[in-house]
Amino acid sequence: MNLLDHGYNLILVYLLGGLVGTLYETGLYLVRDHRFVRSNGSVTTPFNFVYGMGAVLVSFVLSYVWHWPWLVYLLSVVIGGAAEYLAATLEQAICHTRSWDYTGRVLSIQGKTTIPIMLLWGVMGLIVIYLFYLPLVFYVVEPYFLDTAGHAYVYHVVLIVLGSYTFLDLMLVLAVMTRHQKRHDHVPPKTIFGRFIDVVFDDRYVRKHFPNAKFKEERVPVWEKPKGGL
After folding, report:
1. 148, 142, 227, 216: which is closest to 185 by C-alpha?
2. Cystine design at 63: which of 3, 27, 155, 224 (Cβ 3.0–4.6 Å)?
3. Structural domain includes residue 177
4. Cβ proximity of 55 and 83 under 8 Å
């Protein structure tokens, strides 16, 4: 049996992992900070890119080693930390913003991830593989979505459509955040699309829908935040 279904299952994992990540982050802010924060990091979808890609990487790599839980944990530590570090690095390089900053936290790695958080990624990897991915494949996808050629065709087409739409949304997010950075640097748009972005997705929109995306000079180090501040 092909646990990845030739890659189609990874699209499903991205969608579900991204949705769970959005719900988790939103709930975390509600409980910890008593405020609502849009945590999807998307324009038109509820799928958090970091959690979605983390779930995909974990599922892809660990589908080959799922027989060894200790290896699943160790690889999840590395994969989760690397994904978070890479996402922060790319955002900083392309958009000149940071959506999270662990500077000042215990064992921080350039403020982009921390050792304790990486260890938590290991636990999440175990949960993803043994409580989410394998049961999903064995008890849902295989018996209901891939049981006949017709069901498999519909399943694959739906995933392709949803995956393509999500990819286009990510490209739109990149364009929105790039123009946000350009406006910050007082660079006018050079295309009709750029002017459209500036009108529809202006700075007020970005502050509302991407509240954690801050330019370097806007961010306050952890140890300088006032007590009780957000």
Report:
1. 216
2. 3
3. yes
4. no
d(C-alpha 181, C-alpha 197), whole Å: 12
Expressed as residue numbers, the domain containing 152 is: 5-224
User: Which secondary structure element, helix H or strand E, spans residue 159, and what is its range?
Assistant: helix 149-184
Q: Is 124 inside a domain boundary?
A: yes
Q: Is 158 within the bounds of a domain?
A: yes
Neighbour-count burial of 22, counting CB atoms closer than 10 A to its CB (0-12 exposed, 13-18 middle, 19+ buried) = buried
pTM here is: 0.77
Please tell me the total count of domains within the chain.
Answer: 1
Q: Which residues make Cβ contacts (< 8 Å) with residue 109, sequence separation at least 6?
A: 81, 85, 102, 115
pLDDT for the residue numbered 24:
87
Residue 27 lies in a domain: yes
Distance CA 192, CA 126 (A): 47
CA-CA distances (angstroms) from residue 181 to 49, 61, 96, 99, 185? Answer: 20, 35, 6, 13, 6
Give the number of other CB atoms < 10 A from CB of residue 35: 9
